[in-house]
Design brief:
Layout lengths: L19 E4 L4 E4 L5 E6 L10 H19 L3 E8 L4 H10 L3 H18 L7 E4 L4 H13 L3 E4 L2 E4 L15 H10 L15 E6 L14 E3 L1 H12 L4 E7 L3 H16 L5 E7 L2 E3 L2 E2 L10 H7 L2 H9 L7 E2 L3 H17 L7 H13 L4 H16 L8 H13 L4
Parallel strand pairs: 3-4, 3-10, 4-5, 10-11, 12-14
Antiparallel strand pairs: 1-2, 6-7, 7-8, 8-9, 12-13
Helix pairs in contact: 4-6, 6-7, 9-10, 10-12, 11-12, 11-13
Amino acid sequence: MRSWSAPKIPSLPGAGLPLRLYDTSAREIRETTPGPTALMYVCGITPYDATHLGHANTYLAFDLVNRVWRDAGHQVRFIQNATDVDDPLLERAEQTGVDWRELAEREIELFRSDMDALRILPPDEYVGVTEVVDQVAALIGRLKDKGATYEVDGDVYFSVGAAPKFGAVSGFSEEEMLELFAERGGDPGREGKRHPLDWLLWRAERPGEPSWPSPFGPGRPGWHVECTTIALNCLGSGFDVSGGGSDLIFPHHEMGASEGHVATGEWPFAKAYVHAGMVALDGEKMSKSRGNLVFVSKLRAAHDPVAVRLALLAHHYRADWEWTPDQIETAHGRLARWRSAVELPAGPDGQALLRQVRERMADDLDTPGALAAVDAWAARASAGEGDDPEAPALVRAIADALLGVAL
């Protein structure tokens, strides 16, 4: 599947610091330890109602991971999927009378244009689930050979009893898991299952639904095993970061980790599980089911996309926060001040600012702290302080390379 265009990242003097991130599975902030090439998988959209600010908040977070790693001297191999066949997509297509393939293609193209406008670095491989159905079926076959699957009326399930590390990613109790599983696409009450938390790997063909041939009969993949397959095929087990929104901690990342563990015998499936916070509107989490969405495409039609990015950067990536219209106006003001400051012939020491921004970004992507440092530099420069003639150009490069803000 085609990705989107990559913005050029300026080079900065010296090298950045090792990146520390909050690892959900460890319940603490830890230093990432990639090799020469850092490996990252980020779960993509189900392509309907794209792209709202919750999506943008998540993908911006992992864009920053990508940028900080690159500044520290790593190459980055970044993989992302698009869940271009799934129950919610099919339901929306039926409701609107649009072919599901047409709906997915349209929404993915909108997503690409939004990511491009927000200057999100594109994945090295952008993979649609419909492109890898045979590979998903092959992984389910491996799980079957391990004795980890069983069937209920033709549907293939993963047995949670076959996963010795189940629960290690989220740390949730079984009671919490059951509640979230029911809320987030699971079927804990289905008759014939061995355990309420067993999850679907392959959905047998239903009338009117798309299906593909497989050793288990015609059907289509379950949700979690899709990402497991793509991550294993593109990165292998033990990659550096598995990322997404905090609503993916359970069941999606928990179940994917167990699939990877059982299939390969290796643990951990990912070295770190990193999650972005949720964005709310009018007191409720922004979600497709509630319909309380603010779309990036509408915002960028009315505002400079760089201001939209700055509005998101004002919040720490792990925080849950609420969108209000005044935030875009605040971002416009900040952008204007920064742009005015870097047009000056000189300013305060740019190297000192570079050290500050690197420190803030390496410390669990502290974007509010990084923005405050640039704010302070811009205020001093605008007040006539500093006589470093190279500072404005360096600050322009800092904002671009580390924050993705084009001045």
